[in-house]
Amino acid sequence: MKILGIIPARYASTRFPAKALVDIYGKSMVQRVYEQAKKCSALSEVIVATDNERIFNHVEAFGGKVIMTSAQHQSGTDRCAEVAAALPEFDVVINIQGDEPFINPEQITKVAALFTDVKTALATLVKKIETEEELQNTNTPKVVLNNLSEAIYFSRSVIPHIRGQEIQNWLQHHTFYKHIGIYGYRSAVLHQITKLPVSTLEKAESLEQLRWIENGYRIKVAETEIETLAIDTPADLENILKKYSKID
């Protein structure tokens, strides 16, 4: 089985323009993501997918592989689909978030391992929620699982609702999971889901994976204990630079 790791990296981020090129202790964000992904032995190849010439040239300059994609894509999934269509020899595509410069290769391996089951069409990761603050953060999508370790719903709200308990006590009565934003797709399935129209649940929650569930696709889930550090805003970057005085 050949697995392709794709790092979507666009320039025009709404909350943090040009964040793919921001310097983090001597290396750009996109270079750090690329180097972490390359450490994952489950991946046959790693490619950056961008719509920007500056990012394209930068990736080539540090020796990475990069493909220019359309500027019209609405999501990283769409960008991945364009690359996958040009590289039909790969069986599985893993979408590695371009704003997680310290992603642990073990997380990529966990997603890749789910595809040893031929029935797995789509895959992602979850992590147990440990704090009430995290539980109630609407920027942290929560995931409800079935007994087959499949995601049956994602929500920015706290789900399920624990009836008869104050919300500050909910973690004592139920195990809640948050979504870790890395996706795996069978190549054929990736092309199918990008042709689906935006769904009502996706519009409501602004979570594209709900489109897949609403159309009957199953999303296999693996649990990780490793925390991720996404950089969505300049403030996120400042906090990380304060936390880490030096990074290799």
Walk me through the topology.
Blueprint: E1 3-9, E2 23-24, E3 27-28, H1 29-38, E4 45-50, H2 53-61, E5 66-68, H3 76-86, E6 92-95, H4 105-113, E7 122-128, H5 132-136, E8 142-145, E9 150-155, E10 177-186, H6 187-193, H7 200-205, H8 209-214, E11 219-223, H9 234-243
Could you describe the 3D structure shown?
- 29% of the residues lie in helices and 23% in strands.
- With 248 residues, it is an alpha/beta fold.
- It has a single domain (3-230), classed as Alpha-Beta Complex (Spore Coat Polysaccharide Biosynthesis Protein SpsA, Chain A), CATH 3.90.550.10.
- β4, α2 and β5 form a beta-alpha-beta unit.
Summarize the structure.
The protein has 248 residues and is an alpha/beta fold.
Instruction: Tell me the radius of gyration.
Output: 18 Å
Fraction in helix: 25-40%
Please identify, by name, the CATH architecture: Alpha-Beta Complex
CATH superfamily caption? Spore Coat Polysaccharide Biosynthesis Protein SpsA, Chain A
Keywords:
Spore Coat Polysaccharide Biosynthesis Protein SpsA, Chain A, two-stranded antiparallel ribbon, 9 helices, alpha/beta
